[in-house]
Amino acid sequence: RQRVFSGVQPTGALHLGNYLGAIRQWVTHQDLFENWFCVVDLHAITVPHDAQRLAEDTMNTAAMYLACGIDPRRCKIFVQSHVPAHAEMAWLLNCLTPMSWLEKMTQFKDKRAKLEDAQSIYVGLFTYPVLMAADILLYRAERVPVGEDQRQHLELARDVARSFNHLYGKRIKRQRQPPVFREPEALAWDESSGVARVMSLTDGTSKMSKSAASDMSRINLLDDADTVRSKIKRCKTDAGRELVFDDPDRPECTNLLNVYRALTGSRPKAEIEDVLRQSGGWAAFKPLLAEAIVTELAPIQRRYREVLADRGELQRILRDGAEAAAEIANETLRRARGAMGFMERV
Ligand code: ATP
Ligand code: MG
Asked: Does residue 21's CB lie within 6 angstroms of at least one atom of ligand 1?
């Protein structure tokens, strides 16, 4: 079975974009692959963070994986910083990644633009994609199911792997061993299980994010039914009456229809447009959408409370995950150190 690696940052409450763009896909594919799901806490500190909250957010993110349907008997779940090889590998890769590659990353430009104080634009935010490359390459993962916003970072991970193998692979090749790194691929994106890019509820041109200032811009997976209804009622719409998919001038309309479709069995777009044409415009559609979201979230919220009621069990799952992860990660790190010519520890 091919190996999958993916993760979410513990930067706050998970939202519908994380779910439809990533986690729901992890869940539907968990039997097909060998799965490694990480709570990437080292990534969460690349922007100013609240030290009082990090540990709790890390626990909550792991709990949410389980609540969404990740089965710890079939998948390993662990916390990134519990496997020190991630940080060490990131340093090695930092020392062969050209700055010019990172300067092209659109997420860095976006996040930098949002940070008003220049003192809080950290070097770590700039090299974030290198840490992400380390995460993936340590496990020699073949597939990486992420939302559209992470595509560019995944490409970079491939470039870094190729560059390392090229620079340091000669001796390994002579010894007829497999290359240190494997070039990962995005998991071919499956329309039936999600939405590659869920947009903000208040601006159809920017993605839904944990770190966006306004809570009205996103549906959190823990929002109660009334909150979901009021956010949908107040979310941005347009003056067009017909509800149609994929009109480039109507990003809000496309976004809400995509979410609705993903939550209601992914029927053909034309069929959904037909039904909505007869029921009549935004006023009729919004309650339908709100109820579809509420229905999807209810069992997740119930399981979330159950998971957090037994923290001992969650900690056991994370400990077991970190132990298993370290075994693979340390072996890749050992080979990478050897290839780069480091003196062996005696
Ligand atoms: P932050 O604002 O702190 O970066 P985020 O909402 O972007 O938070 P991440 O932890 O960075 O969430 O990403 C976790 C996963 O969710 C990634 O696979 C990412 O591609 C996916 N994802 C995040 N936002 C969206 C979105 N709006 N639509 C689809 N997928 C998304
Ligand atoms: Mg993000």
From this structure: yes
For 253-266, the pLDDT digits (tens) are 999 999 999 999 98
Q: Where are the beta strands (DSSP E) in the chain?
A: 3-8, 34-39, 75-79, 143-144, 185-186
Give the CATH number of the domain where residue 188 resides: 3.40.50.620
CB-based contacts of 139, cutoff 8 Å, min separation 6: 3, 5, 36, 325, 328, 329, 332
Largest pairwise CA distance in the chain: 76
DSSP state of 220: B
Contacts of 345 (CB under 8 A, 6+ apart): none
Local confidence band at 191 (pLDDT 50, 70, 90 cut-offs): low
Q: Is 0.80 topped by the overall pTM? A: yes
Cβ neighbours around 345 below 10 Å, total: 6
Question: Residue 245's domain spans which residues?
Answer: 223-305
The CA 173 to ligand 2 mean position distance, Å, reads 37
Ligand nearest 149 Cα, by number?
A: 1
Domain check: are 17 and 138 in the same one? yes
